Amino acid sequence: MRTVLARLLGAALAAGIVAGLIASLGQALKLTPLILAAEQYETEPHDSDTAGDPSLSAHSHAEAWQPAEGTERIAYTVLANIVAGTGFALLLCACLTLYRGRLDGVRGMAWGLAGFAVFALAPALGLPPELPGSAAAELGARQAWWLGTALATATGLALIFLQKRTAWRIVGALAIVAPHAVGAPHPHHIGGALPAELAAQFAVGSLVISAVFWIALGGVAGFALRRPR
Predict the structure, then answer these.
(1) What Rg do the C-alpha atoms of the chain give, in angstroms?
(2) What's the CA gap between 179 and 4, in Å, rounded?
(3) Measured CA distances, 17 to 81, 92, 132, 216, 217 (Å)
(4) Contact, 108 vs 219, CB < 8 A?
(5) Is the backbone of residue 134 left (phi > 0), alpha (psi -120 to 50) or beta?
(6) Among candidate residues 161, 178, 192, 175, the one with its CA nearest the CA of residue 49
(7) What are the C-alpha distances in Å from 193 to residues 30, 38, 63, 97?
(8) Tens of pLDDT along the chain (229 residues)?
(9) Do 35 and 130 touch, CB atoms closer than 8 A?
(10) Nearest to 224 by CA among 90, 30, 57
């Protein structure tokens, strides 16, 4: 039991580090420039920011702590990605350990793609990744819909790919569709200072980097936990 646990933890840590570093590189090359550009729109004063209250300005948004630009920001980003990667890898490795079929790096990548579908792609269909300053619905409602969508998608994929009976596969497909039929929460007022092109680039870039992150996560975990059928 101790050997199995040690192997699981080692696989999760290795996968988390590799995937976290890959995601950090992608973010530095693609997403960070977009975030910095969006922060300019967020901190610049606009007429709508001060309407009805001359004392209100965008300067107040900059009072919250944030890491300094350069090395400090990069270090915090890398650390956060590795911690998140290790957490997701623990969940993935637990599923791979329970799965009794053949396992290797390629099959691990397939599981990683399933993780991408559950935690990134499916939620993004209703709530795409957002830049700072984007108009958004109430946080609690978004979190509840995101969690429900992730759970429904995970359940649906499990029923479709791990069950042989057609009836269960139909139930799985319905589970995946259900959150989107209900609809994600959206703000009452659409719009904002951010250009639509900037927001679209960020959403697409985030999903691509997330896909690579999950493929790397699954590949390393599957290789570390590899076993014959």
Answers:
(1) 20
(2) 36
(3) 8, 14, 27, 10, 9
(4) yes
(5) beta
(6) 192
(7) 21, 9, 20, 47
(8) 678 889 999 999 999 999 999 999 999 999 988 888 887 776 554 444 434 443 333 343 445 567 777 788 889 999 999 999 999 999 999 999 888 888 999 999 999 999 999 999 999 999 999 887 677 778 899 999 999 999 999 999 999 998 999 999 999 999 999 999 999 998 776 656 677 888 899 999 999 999 999 999 999 999 999 987 6
(9) no
(10) 90
- Torsion sign, CA atoms 46, 200, 130, 84: negative
pTM exceeds cut of 0.85:
no
Cα–Cα separations (whole angstroms), residue 82 to 79, 114, 162, 201: 5, 20, 30, 24
Specify the amino acid at residue 170. Answer: I
Query: What does the DSSP 8-state code read for residue 67?
Result: P
In the chain, alpha helices (H) = 2-26, 32-43, 47-50, 71-98, 105-116, 122-126, 139-162, 166-182, 196-224
* Residue among 81, 80, 73 nearest 35 (CA): 73
- What's the half-sphere exposure (Cβ side, CA atoms, 13 Å) at 1? 0
Tokens encoding 86: 């290790």
d(CA 19, CA 17): 6
